[in-house]
Amino acid sequence: MSSTPIESFYSEDIDSATDLPQKQKQVLKACLELFASKGFESTTTADIAEKAGVSQGTVYKRFKTKDQLLHAVVQPLFSKTTPRAAKEFAEDIRQFKYDSLADFLKPTLMNRLTFGAENKQVIKILFMQAVNDQTLLAELIGPVKDVLTNTIPVVLDELKKQHLLVDWDTPRIMEYVLSIGAGYGAQMVLFDRKFDLEHIIDQAVEFLVKGLSPEK
Fold first, then answer.
1. What would the pLDDT profile of 153-204 be if each residue is shown by its tens digit?
2. Backbone Cα Rg of the chain
3. 134 and 143 in contact (C-beta within 8 Å)?
4. Which residue has the higher pLDDT, 95 or 103?
5. Dist CA 48 CA 68 (whole Å)
6. How far apart are CA 74 and CA 28, in angstroms?
7. For residues 181 and 175, what is the distance between their CA atoms, to the nearest angstrom?
8. Confidence class of residue 81 from pLDDT cuts 50, 70 and 90?
């Protein structure tokens, strides 16, 4: 499995917008990159203008305040970019046939934790905005919920049919898997912890396989 960086999807989404002049598209793309690398508070109008290749006046020609600019930057992230990233992940999961529980767990955990590590600054922006805006939170949860309810359960049910997974309720199994993946992901994204992904995933998979394999 491989994942497209969030900023790549975002750039495509901004370029496809028909209601924005080219210079404003450059501003939004520059803002996301700078907010992710420097932080919202530390990013100046001069930084944005230089990165976007426009004048400082152009930066606030359409968006009158920095907060308005931030909202304009994150809105496509929630409405377009996040659903595309979730869809890509779902399609990756569906395209493989898994011959063992480990065959499913290891690449799936590696994919999501690598994605989190490579996109952690943008993910921080998403979460920071979502906790203060219920509409944005709903847009963030929707695509993730779709993967959790319509994609992963299908794989788990197939593993059960092959007697490769314990015959428990699927939501119960997902809670155990997600708690481990989300635990490591939160530490990486929110607390900037660095892990040897191969090592921790091997350990997690060993633990989960022992706990979730059918009794022989």
1. 999 999 999 999 999 999 999 999 999 999 999 999 888 899 999 999 999 9
2. 20
3. no
4. 103
5. 14
6. 9
7. 10
8. very high
1 has a pLDDT exceeding 80: no
Q: Which residues touch 181 (CB under 8 Å, ≥6 apart)?
A: 109, 112, 113, 204
- Which tokens is 141 given? 């949860």
Distances (CA, A) of 23 to 46, 85, 122, 198: 15, 26, 22, 42
**Residues in Cβ contact with 36 at an 8 Å cutoff, skipping those fewer than 6 apart:** 7, 121, 122, 124, 125
CA–CA separation, 17 and 135 (whole Å) = 21
Side chain identity at residue 72, one-letter code: A
Q: Which residue has the tokens 């992940």?
A: 89
- Give Cα 24 to chain centroid, integer Å: 25
